[in-house]
Design a protein that fits this description.
Elements (H helix, E strand, L loop, with lengths): L1 E5 L4 H12 L3 E6 L4 H9 L3 E4 L5 H8 L4 E4 L6 H6 L1 H22 L3 E5 L29 H20 L4 E6 L2 E2 L8 H12 L7 E7 L5 E3 L1 E2 H14 L5 E4 L4 E3 H12 L2 E7 L14 H4 L9 H25 L2
Parallel strand pairs: 1-2, 1-4, 2-3, 4-5, 5-6, 6-11, 7-10, 8-13
Antiparallel strand pairs: 9-12
Length: 328
């Protein structure tokens, strides 16, 4: 079976490609936000990688030819971008969903799988949160909600526009996937950077770590290996027209997260509270029982996953410090 993965050189996308390859798929990627070394690795592993933008309908149609499954992951990620270019975030969301659904329909694709987000809930009413919780855009004037709003629109298009075209659509909502090389616009890489730089390359035993708000905000972090396994399970076995949470129930607050990362790095930290941006979510943890009914089980604990992730980012930031010192 041949699968097209949009956004396939991204963090989740590249891991998904490898999971699909291991499952016997022939995999093609369409991506405009190239991570060149990732793309080269995927090509070496047998993935066909095409450069192209999901906002261009003709490009998407060509990429979709001969495919039986379409995984739509292409999106603009990173909190900074929600604020800096909300119009582009929404354009990629809406045009990307419409173009991939149209192309999938014309190419005779059998299954369309959309990667949504836990951001569609903003501040959930219930914890743990199941898939029936209401989706919210609290303030249409706040550019932060361009991300969640675009995902809500993409879900609506999958549920109704795709269904009207006879295309079987399934949605999965990832909850805080993390792992090595996940990018730099996320809390875990940011905390590692602050500790490594604040301790002068781990040379000092204690340092201050600025965080947004009081640090009592909670998340349930899901290691990428568990995440892609759950995503493929939802995509393959999930019922058309249904939504599945992918994540873990292991909830942790940000102060605890900072303490674990500091312990891994061998540094004591003093948390420095800074202003929390408008629209920040206080608590988020998914109910994954619906996916568990398909056979899902998260296997990697937070501490185990953080050990791998923190090691990767610490090495990266230490190399940066080393180069800076070498250059005077």
């Amino acid at each position: 079976m041949k699968a097209l993965v949009t956004g396939g050189t991204g963090f989740l996308g590249s891991a998904l490609c490898r999971e699909l390859l291991n499952g016997g798929y022939h995999v093609r990627v369409l991506d405009s936000g190239w991570r060149e070394r990732v793309a080269e690795d995927l090509i070496a592993e047998g993935v066909e990688v095409l450069a192209g933008d999901v906002r261009d309908a003709s490009t998407v149609r060509k990429a979709c030819e001969g495919c039986e499954v379409l995984w739509h992951l292409a999106y603009i990620n990173g909190t900074r971008f929600f604020y800096e270019k909300p119009g582009e975030v929404l354009e990629v969301a809406i045009k990307g969903a419409v173009n991939t659904i149209d192309a999938a329909t014309d190419a005779g694709v059998q299954r369309y799988i959309l990667a949504s987000s836990s951001e569609v809930y903003q501040e959930p009413e219930h914890i743990p949160t199941d898939e029936s919780a209401r989706l919210v855009v609290p303030d249409i004037k706040n550019p932060r909600y361009s991300y969640g709003g675009g995902k809500i629109a993409s879900e609506l298009l999958t549920m109704h526009y795709a269904k009207g075209k006879g295309l079987a659509g399934v949605i999965f909502r990832p909850h805080n996937f993390y792992g090595p090389n996940m990018g730099f616009e996320h809390v875990i890489p940011e905390v590692v950077r602050k500790i490594v730089t604040g301790s002068d390359g781990l040379q000092h035993a204690i340092c201050g770590v600025p965080i947004q708000g009081d640090g009592r905000q909670t998340r349930a972090f899901c290691y990428i290996d568990d995440g892609v396994h759950g995503a493929v399970l939802a995509g393959e076995k999930g019922q058309p027209g249904e939504i599945y949470h992918v994540g873990t129930k292991e909830e942790v607050n940000i102060q605890e997260l900072v303490a674990i990362i500091a312990q891994i790095l061998g540094v004591s930290v003093e948390v420095i509270q800074e202003a929390e941006p408008p629209g920040a979510t206080r608590r988020r943890c998914p109910d994954v029982s619906k996916l568990e009914s398909l056979g899902y089980q998260a296997k990697i604990s937070l501490r185990e996953g953080l050990a791998k992730t923190v090691a990767w980012y610490a090495e990266y930031y230490l190399r940066q410090i080393g180069r800076s010192r070498a250059n005077g």
